[in-house]
UniProtKB/TrEMBL annotation, chain A:
This is Copper-containing nitrite reductase. It comes from Flavobacterium laiguense. InterPro entries: Cu-oxidase-like_N, Cupredoxin, Cyt_c-like_dom, Cyt_c-like_dom_sf, Cytochrome_c-type_DH, NO2-reductase_Cu. It is an enzyme of class 1 (oxidoreductase). It catalyses: nitric oxide + Fe(III)-[cytochrome c] + H2O = Fe(II)-[cytochrome c] + nitrite + 2 H(+). The gene is nirK. Gene3D superfamilies: Cupredoxins - blue copper proteins, Cytochrome c-like domain. Its EC number is 1.7.2.1. One of its GO terms (molecular function) is nitrite reductase (NO-forming) activity. Homotrimer. Cu cation binds at H126, H131, H166, C167, H175, M180, H321.
Automatic annotation (TrEMBL), chain B:
Residues 44-254 form the Sulfatase-modifying factor enzyme-like domain. Gene3D superfamilies: paralog of FGE (formylglycine-generating enzyme). It comes from Flavobacterium laiguense. GO terms for molecular function: formylglycine-generating oxidase activity. The keyword Nuclease does not apply. Residues 1-21 form the signal peptide. This is Sulfatase-modifying factor enzyme-like domain-containing protein. InterPro entries: CTDL_fold, Sulfatase_Mod_Factor_Kinase, SUMF_dom, SUMF_sf. Keywords: Signal. The keyword Signal applies. It comes from the Bacteria.
Length: 491, 257
């Protein structure tokens, strides 16, 4: 009995030892003894240079293999009016005149001399808390600066990673809600691996006195902010900051890196790119890399670095996959990938038929009572501009960015005989939806388009935009024409 | 003769109102108590004694009169110790506020030292922060409107309006005490503008200090929703006595005899 027991014990001990050693090995693969900061604080700096700052969606050039240096940053605070959405104005408080603020790029060991400059026309005092800073308030305690003044403080970059910075003057929430946040990158020695394209995207939630879409100058609404009920959730400070001709671009075969931050103040982002899979995610902007990720969480006051290679041409859609935020509150951006197709990776539709289990009746979007009145009638040019935004939100997903549609599934709007032949039919389709057989430019389509929950004016604008684009006949559709169709019962 | 007398009296009355307007009207503020957002560690009400407060902030025109009498405070004569470079920088010259600044707009870009001197030369003084806040918490009808949503919204909306320092005085609302422009025109100096950093007890001091930065931003605040006031305390805390800022003016107060 006794020897047997001992034997069993021995096996257990050996197993435990193996486990410990292998765990230890695993750990040593990833971590050096002691923290990065412990060793990085001894990195010597050479020379001095002025930091390059960039407005989103661009980032300064990589640090490469440069030595740690004394890096001088001049960051100017500006309180300025901007456009949150078409016709919706908002007074933003900014670092460097943009939301998010200027991108700062450093490397470990850099000694940053930070100049925070508060423009004389500004009303308020501000400061800055950089999450990359080790020290009281992340710099906030040393940087409270009155309008027309400048504060300077120094810090050493000890930990590599992607960090949020923000204003931390009371009331902190309001300063952040008005746009006072941005990213600072601390690259490891030798820099991050080279990629083909790098972009800077940051999510933020906004709280306006009026509802989403209500035109005019909107004020910050603190009740909504406290209740965490934003009217806008957007990338780069406004709806449409990354769509249309402002979309990000890449070519097939290129590797894209997005520095993705979340300023909050309240919401956590479920960052996802429709039509891609992240090859690599630097989780929370730190050292750990996860591979093959669909959606990554970006906490408020946090960041992530995502990388993916673009294999096929597509318009990739950046969203917060808390999806109503994307399609109803603005958290939507685009990355246009151009280049040759690869049918093995993605074929497009190869076969198409009809399947009717529950009947193919017309679906409709729930109708709210909103009928947003604009203050004055729009010119055709203004209609086209607004219509473009509506298109980006409501039509683009099926009819595609250049109105080309998707062959055999969604009909084209470009050079469309259906549209150009009969304006009334076009209005009718948007107002009431459309299903069953339609023939457009000689091709038959059989699908369902839901009735769109848009105001008369929005429909007029989007149709005017469509008619003015892609070789159509430039018909100007008015809100009253749309109203006329709305009042017709049935279809 | 009687007619002459009446005319004379009317004339005197008109003259005196004109003169007092020139001289800056002030009104009596009755004593009371209030709980400030910051500055009391025990959240007990602070007593404010009765005093006189100017109805309007000091204007460009009034300030020129002062400078002509005390030229050592003019832009070219001022000692750097008492006012930084931006002192009266929006003016055309030493004694000329130019055509872009209204005569009845509040004078701004004035340092605390000079504002204090101005009031002393009128036989007055700068209001204390408690006095200022006490008067500023009144709306048209109430002594304390701080919990009223509309009131806070009004104050907050000013933060988003650009260049209000170019507006004339007396165009915002007249509050319970008969005082104008406590909100909606410019920030104002108080005699002890940075005193909440100096409560005396060092450990508490530190905590109060941190309040204006991240983290504990609301722990010591007596009214969580009083965002509007947070801004004033934050702004004041960033000032130094020689600062001159475009959105910062002042008015005077006086002890009651």
């Amino acid at each position: 009995m006794k020897p047997k027991q001992q034997n069993g014990k021995r096996i257990k001990i050996v197993l435990a030892a193996c486990l410990t050693v292998s765990l230890g090995l695993l750990a040593f693969n990833h971590y050096k003894p002691g923290s990065d900061a412990d060793s990085n604080k001894y990195i010597k700096v050479e020379g001095q240079q002025e930091a390059e700052l960039t407005a989103p969606p661009f980032v300064p050039k990589p640090v490469g293999d440069r030595a740690a240096t004394k890096l001088v940053v001049h960051m100017e605070i500006k309180e300025q009016e901007g456009e949150m959405a078409d016709g919706v104005k908002y007074t933003y408080w900014t670092f460097g005149g943009s939301v998010p603020g200027s991108f700062i790029r450093t490397r470990v060991g850099d000694e940053v001399e930070f100049h925070l400059e508060n423009h004389p026309d500004n009303k308020l005092s501000h400061n800055i808390d950089l999450h990359a800073v080790t020290g009281q308030g992340g710099g906030a305690a040393s940087s409270l600066v009155a309008p027309g003044h400048e504060k300077v403080f120094n810090f050493k970059c000890l930990n590599p990673g992607l960090y949020v910075y923000h204003c931390a003057t009371a009331p902190v929430g309001m300063h952040i809600a008005n746009g006072m946040y941005g990213l600072i990158l601390v690259e490891p020695e030798g820099g991050l691996p080279a990629v083909d394209k790098e972009y800077y995207v940051m999510q933020g939630d906004f709280y306006t006195s009026g509802k989403n879409g209500e035109p005019g100058l909107q004020q910050f609404d603190m009740d909504k902010a406290v209740k965490e009920q934003p009217d806008y959730v957007v990338f780069n400070g406004k709806t449409g900051a990354l769509v249309g001709d402002k979309a990000l671009t890449a070519k097939v075969g290129e590797t894209v890196r997005i520095f993705m931050g979340n300023g909050g103040p309240n919401l956590v982002s479920s960052f996802h790119v429709i039509g891609e899979i992240f090859d690599k995610v630097y989780i929370e902007g730190g050292d750990m890399i996860n591979k093959n990720v669909q959606t990554t969480l970006v906490p408020a006051g946090g960041a992530a670095i995502v990388e993916f290679k673009c294999e096929v041409p597509a318009t990739l859609v950046l969203v917060d996959h808390s999806i109503f935020r994307a399609f109803n509150k603005g958290a939507l951006g685009m990355l246009k990938v151009e280049g040759p197709e690869d049918k093995t990776i993605y074929s497009g539709t190869t076969q198409e038929g009809i399947y009717l289990a529950e009947g193919g009746g017309i679906q409709s979007m729930p109708v709210g009572k909103k009928e947003v009145k604009s203050t004055k009638p729009k010119t055709v040019a203004e209609q086209i501009k607004s219509g473009k935004d509506v298109y980006g939100k409501s039509c683009f997903a099926c009819h595609q960015s250049e109105g080309q549609g998707i062959p055999t599934v969604f009909p084209p709007l470009a050079k469309s005989d259906f549209l150009n032949g009969n304006t009334t039919k076009a209005i009718h389709a948007v107002v009431n939806g459309l299903s069953g057989n339609v023939t457009v430019n000689g091709t038959k389509y059989n699908n369902v388009m839901p009735a769109q929950n848009l105001s008369d004016e929005e429909i007029a604008n989007v149709l005017t935009y469509v008619y003015s684009s892609w070789g159509n006949n430039k018909t100007n559709v008015t809100a009253s024409q749309v109203k006329g169709q709305r009042n017709q019962i049935g279809h | 003769m009687l007619q002459f007398k009446i005319v004379g009296v009317v004339f005197l009355l008109v003259l005196s109102t004109v003169l007092t307007a020139q001289n800056t009207q002030s009104v009596a503020i009755k004593k009371g108590a209030y709980v400030p957002l910051y500055g009391t560690t025990d959240k007990k009400p602070v007593e404010v004694k009765a005093f006189n407060m100017d109805v309007f902030p000091i204007t460009n025109a009034q300030f020129v009169v002062f400078l002509k009498k005390y030229p050592q405070y003019s832009r070219s004569n001022i000692k750097g110790l008492f006012a930084e470079k931006s002192y009266l920088s929006q003016w055309k010259s030493d004694y000329d506020y130019g055509t872009t600044n209204l005569s009845n707009a509040p004078v701004t870009n004035v340092s605390w030292f000079v504002a204090k001197k101005y009031c002393e030369c009128q036989g007055k003084r700068l209001p204390s922060m408690d006095e200022w806040e006490y008067v500023a918490m009144a709306d048209e009808k109430r002594i304390d409107a701080r919990t009223k949503e509309e009131f806070n919204k009004y104050i907050l909306s000013w933060y988003e309006k650009p260049k209000t320092y170019t507006n004339p005085v007396g165009k915002t609302f007249k509050n319970y005490w008969g005082v104008y422009d406590m909100h909606g025109l410019v920030w104002e100096w108080t005699s002890d503008f940075n005193s909440i950093f100096l409560s005396g007890e060092s450990r508490k001091d530190k905590d109060t200090d941190k309040n204006l930065f991240c983290g504990s931003g609301s722990i010591n605040a007596s009214d969580l929703m009083n965002y509007a006031a947070f801004m004033r305390y934050g702004f004041r805390a960033s000032l130094k006595a020689n600062y001159a800022t475009k959105n910062l003016g002042f008015r005077c107060a006086k002890d009651l005899k």
